[in-house]
Design goal:
This protein is an alpha/beta fold and 111 residues long. The chain is built from four helices and five strands. The protein has a five-stranded mixed sheet. The longest helix has 11 residues.
Length: 111
């Protein structure tokens, strides 16, 4: 279902996480997701200065894509409400912005 939504997912990384963003992009594409990026979070206009960064990953939602949101929350093992931020903006370059933190860099299913 998440793949059929074709949510535009932008993967960016927190400082010090170089390399993991491209691996994440490749992994998500292999899972059938519509992924853009990777990019550095300072290159995008969203306000990324929220907990839990840079220790924990987070998902910023610009448009409603419930299946993609649920898929990414499960994959990333989000267990805190502050890992999901909603900033409705239908003109944003992506529906969802996945910001990679140290938790994903240490415990992901990628080879």
């Amino acid at each position: 279902m998440a793949q059929q939504e074709a949510a535009r997912v932008l993967v960016v990384y927190a400082p010090g996480m170089n390399g993991i963003a491209q691996k994440t992009v490749d992994y998500l594409k292999a899972q059938g997701m519509n992924v853009m990026g990777p990019g550095n979070m300072t290159d995008y206009p969203d306000k990324y200065r929220y907990p839990p960064l840079p220790t924990r990953s987070m998902l910023i939602v610009h448009t409603g894509k419930p299946y993609a949101i649920a898929y990414l929350k499960g994959l990333m093992k989000f267990d805190s409400a502050n890992q999901l931020q909603t900033f409705f903006d239908p003109t944003a370059p992506a529906d969802l912005v996945l910001v990679i933190g140290a938790d994903w860099a240490k415990s992901n299913p990628m080879p």
